[in-house]
């Protein structure tokens, strides 16, 4: 088979498929054109999930007759003039492909006027062929009507999803551009309903409230930061509102972008765990620091490596969260527990012991707390109630203690116990042997995979043969046998367990030491240590 040059018509249809993938990508391109035209109102109407009809109307600058005729030609744009301009793109669109691509695969009608006299022009394009260009009455701005998307490429049309699924993707697109442009009015309607009616507002948080609701916004922390080369505003879930399925939306200079590294970095803001926060990041920096010309649909961007993104932003957010969320809540709890109007030096609990042993200052017993089912500690404080899991709380305290001090004294057993290990268990033990010794275990290796436990860490109240085997078995299943994973398993098996009864003094000291930590909200395995119930939560549950 000989190589041949493709016909221009085939080339244009291939290019169109790269730019216009589905109705949502078509809506995206048209919204970007409206925003670049400085529109203050963008109204979108779709039928059949955008497959039958997409109409985007704006009150932007509009186009005259010559521009209208040229805009449906490939690679025609008002955004850039020369190759160097690609290094500092300020507009959302810049390639001049969108309208041409849409025109190749649909019945496209554009009405536009660049004046306020209702004097405009209309162009009609079918599968890339101009059918007419004529005067029409139209207010200043542009209306783009796209009918029968992909009718000229039946093979492509049959791969579109159901109307419901295509509409859902359109809603996601409109949501993103509405979030990053709160000062612009967005309306989204279908043949059946009005989905969005978002009047212009001043701030990002106002738009978040419009779309997601005020109750949802209360679950977020707002963080703002300004540095020499960049600035950002971010909204991130409070630590008590993490979940498995999260919303993470990133913008740079108001342009939405997708980046798996950013998603991974911000999933770990509260350290590694199974649940993560919702994130809305609005990042601003010089256009020369980013490359937006790396994806056919401009969905991805590349940052100058010297900026250190996203990990640099992650660290800033983590520091700010501690200052703005964790620390104030800790201070409230510590004041409540101590019955004082000041926060004094915190002395850690002697791990493995409950009560005030080893403290230089005695913490007064706090009376407004209770134990539920010998598992949960309920604490009353000025913001409502805290429900604390006693096991995960103590596990967190022990874990942080081991991480900080590492080398512990050994408590020798009066009656050492023998354990016969399976081959894979014995291999795991040898891998973590040094770490176990550093934490205070005294283990003698005998013959034929038999070991003798002669001593345990001083902070462990008691350890049975079964407890030790649970540690080894958990580590055997781990992909990594680094010290931190060993610390996690030791802390888990050494902590107070579900079902253990505690006195009010023991509960007071446990909570005090928990809130002495930098981040008391999650155990080492990522499970929540506590949940907060406010008076507002109760009012909402009771319908007040």
Give the DSSP E fraction (strand runs of 2 or more residues). Answer: 15-25%
Order of strands, widest sheet: 5-4-3-6-2-1-7-8
Give average pLDDT, whole number: 85
State the end-to-end CA separation: 76 Å
- Helix fraction? 25-40%
The secondary structure category is alpha+beta
Q: What overall form do the CA principal axes indicate?
A: elongated
Major beta-sheet overview? 8 strands, mixed
Q: From the alpha-carbon coordinates, what is the Rg to the nearest angstrom?
A: 31 Å
Low-confidence stretches: 340-358
Quantity of strands, as a count: 22
Number of helices: 16
Features:
five-stranded mixed beta sheet; 22 strands; eight-stranded mixed beta sheet; 24% strand; 544 residues; alpha+beta
Provide a compact summary of the structure:
This protein is α+β, with helices and mostly antiparallel strands and 544 residues long. It contains 16 helices and 22 strands.
């Amino acid at each position: 088979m000989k190589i041949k040059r493709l016909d221009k018509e085939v080339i244009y249809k291939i290019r169109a498929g790269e730019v216009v993938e589905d109705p949502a990508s078509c809506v995206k391109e048209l919204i970007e054109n409206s925003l670049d035209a400085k529109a203050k109102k963008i109204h979108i109407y779709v039928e059949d999930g955008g497959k039958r009809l997409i109409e985007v109307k704006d009150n932007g600058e509009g186009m005259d007759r010559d521009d209208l005729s040229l805009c449906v030609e490939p690679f025609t744009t008002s955004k850039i003039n020369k190759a160097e301009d690609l290094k500092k793109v300020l507009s959302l669109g810049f390639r001049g492909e969108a309208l041409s691509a849409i025109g190749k695969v649909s019945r496209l009608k554009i009405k536009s006027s660049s004046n306020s006299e209702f004097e405009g022009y209309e162009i009609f394009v079918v599968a890339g062929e101009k059918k007419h260009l004529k005067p029409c009455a139209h207010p200043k701005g542009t209306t783009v009507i796209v009918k029968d998307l992909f009718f000229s490429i039946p093979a492509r049309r049959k791969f579109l999803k159901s109307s419901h699924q295509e509409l859902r993707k359109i809603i996601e697109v409109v949501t993103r551009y509405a979030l990053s442009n709160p000062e612009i009015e967005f309306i989204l309607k279908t043949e059946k309903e009005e989905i969005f009616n978002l009047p212009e507002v001043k701030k990002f948080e106002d738009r978040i409230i419009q779309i997601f609701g005020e109750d949802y916004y209360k679950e977020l922390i707002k963080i703002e930061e300004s540095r020499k080369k960049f600035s950002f505003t971010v909204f991130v879930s409070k630590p008590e509102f993490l979940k498995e399925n999260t919303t993470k939306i990133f913008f740079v200079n108001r342009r939405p972008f997708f980046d798996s590294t950013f998603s991974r970095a911000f999933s770990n803001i509260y350290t590694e765990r199974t649940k993560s926060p919702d994130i809305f990041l609005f990042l601003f920096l010089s256009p020369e620091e980013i490359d937006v010309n790396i994806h056919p649909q401009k969905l991805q961007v590349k940052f100058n490596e010297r900026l250190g993104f996203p990990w640099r932003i992650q660290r800033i957010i983590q520091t700010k969260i501690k200052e703005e969320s964790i620390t104030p809540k800790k201070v409230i709890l510590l004041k409540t527990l101590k019955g004082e109007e000041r926060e004094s030096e915190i002395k850690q609990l002697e791990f493995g012991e409950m009560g005030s042993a080893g403290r230089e200052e005695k913490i007064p017993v706090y009376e407004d707390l209770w134990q539920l089912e010998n598992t949960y500690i309920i604490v009353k404080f000025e913001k409502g109630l805290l429900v604390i899991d006693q096991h995960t709380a103590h596990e967190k305290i022990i874990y942080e203690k081991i991480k900080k001090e590492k080398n512990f004294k050994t408590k020798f057993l009066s009656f050492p116990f023998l354990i016969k290990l399976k081959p894979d268990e014995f291999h795991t033990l040898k891998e973590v042997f040094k770490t176990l010794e550093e934490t205070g275990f005294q283990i003698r290796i005998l013959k034929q995979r038999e070991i003798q436990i002669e001593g345990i860490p001083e902070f462990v109240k008691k350890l049975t043969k079964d407890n030790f085997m649970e540690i080894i078995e958990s580590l055997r299943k781990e992909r990594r046998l680094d010290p931190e994973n060993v610390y996690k398993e030791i802390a888990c098996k050494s902590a107070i367990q579900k079902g253990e009864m505690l006195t009010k003094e023991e509960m007071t000291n446990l909570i005090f030491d928990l809130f002495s930590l930098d981040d008391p909200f999650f155990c080492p395995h990522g499970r929540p240590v506590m949940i907060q119930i406010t008076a507002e939560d109760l009012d909402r549950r009771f319908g007040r």
